[in-house]
């Protein structure tokens, strides 16, 4: 384990011992602190007792599967989650449209790719809202990955945070769906633009739950989205 002060803490949830050990070694070599769990039933209790920065979560686990863990976790935490799966048909669900996962990696994968995905998520978190932009409608706290709307804290997933914060940083600018996808994912994976629409729908629902009088996200038919207030 890497016990360096300030090292990001990664929880590896993987029941294949050799793969978990390999991921652990690569993460530690990259300057992260890593801890491993192999049984799904252990995950939520461990997370509640131990602060972490990101979870690498396998889909198929003994005790409780990754989907149930992700759903349970999102009831109390917005910790970034990278799902790992050999079940390609689950990818749409794993993208977080309902579950709240932030990324996915398909097995078999290269440990270097996983480490690159982890670093990419932390870069995005660090790059969004560093100046703590705020006004009477929105305030962004990048360190905590929090956005307040009319003074009320929004319950956002990490993906929703990045998407909304990107719009807030440039009010009035019209973003295409592809441009917004680039804000969420830095690599060139194949993801449909309906992913953005689904996230926007979820964000709007959360905004309207705080203030039905304000609808700051503007849809431009056939083009994309912008934010105005």
Q: Can you tag this structure with a few keywords?
A:
229 residues, alpha/beta, Rossmann fold, Arc Repressor Mutant, subunit A, five-stranded parallel beta sheet
Describe the structure.
- This protein has 229 residues and is α/β, with parallel strands linked by helices.
- It has helices spanning 17-29, 43-49, 66-73, 91-97, 111-127, 158-169, 177-184, 194-210, and strands at residues 9-13, 33-37, 54-58, 81-85, 103-106, 138-141, 146-149, 152-153, 175-176, 217-220, 224-227.
- The strands form three sheets. A five-stranded parallel sheet has the order 2-1-3-4-5, with helices on both faces. A three-stranded antiparallel sheet has the order 6-7-8, with helices on one face.
- The model is unreliable at 129-135 (pLDDT under 50).
In short:
The protein is α/β, with parallel strands linked by helices. It has 8 helices and 11 strands.
**CATH H-level superfamily title of the largest domain:** Response regulator
- Main beta sheet strand tally, sense and closure: 5 strands, parallel
Mean pLDDT, as a whole number?
A: 82
Unreliable stretches: 129-135
Q: Which architecture of the largest domain does the CATH hierarchy give at level 2?
A: 3-Layer(aba) Sandwich
Radius of gyration: 18 Å
- The shape is elongated
H and E order: EHEHEHEHEHEEEHEHHEE
- Per DSSP E runs of 2 or more residues, the count of β-strands stands at 11
Residues in β-strands, percent: 15-25%
- Counted up, domains total 2
Structural class: alpha/beta
Which range best describes the helical content: under 10%, 10-25%, 25-40%, 40-55%, 55-70% or over 70%? 25-40%
Distance between the termini: 47 Å
CATH topology of the largest domain: Rossmann fold
Lateral strand order in the biggest sheet: 2-1-3-4-5
């Amino acid at each position: 384990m890497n016990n360096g002060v300030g090292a990001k803490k990664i929880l590896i949830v993987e029941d294949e011992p050799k793969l978990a050990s390999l991921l652990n070694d690569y993460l530690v070599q990259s300057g992260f602190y890593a801890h491993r769990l192999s049984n799904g039933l252990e995950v939520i209790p461990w997370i509640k007792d131990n602060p972490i920065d990101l979870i690498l979560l396998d889909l198929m686990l003994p005790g409780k599967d990754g989907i149930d863990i992700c759903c349970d976790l999102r009831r109390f935490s917005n910790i970034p989650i990278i799902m790992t799966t050999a079940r390609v048909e689950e990818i749409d669900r794993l993208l977080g449209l309902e579950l709240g996962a932030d990324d996915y990696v398909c097995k078999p994968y290269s440990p270097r790719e996983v480490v690159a995905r982890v670093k990419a998520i932390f870069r995005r978190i660090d790059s969004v809202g560093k100046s703590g932009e705020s006004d009477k409608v929105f305030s962004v706290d990048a360190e905590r990955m929090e956005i307040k709307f009319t003074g009320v804290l929004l319950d956002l997933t990490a993906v929703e945070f990045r998407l909304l914060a990107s719009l807030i940083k440039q009010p009035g600018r019209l973003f295409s769906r592809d441009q917004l996808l680039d804000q969420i994912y830095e690599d060139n994976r194949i993801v449909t633009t309906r992913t953005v629409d689904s996230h926007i729908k979820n964000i709007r629902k959360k905004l309207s739950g705080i203030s039905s009088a304000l609808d700051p996200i503007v849809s431009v038919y056939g083009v994309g989205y912008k934010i105005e207030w």
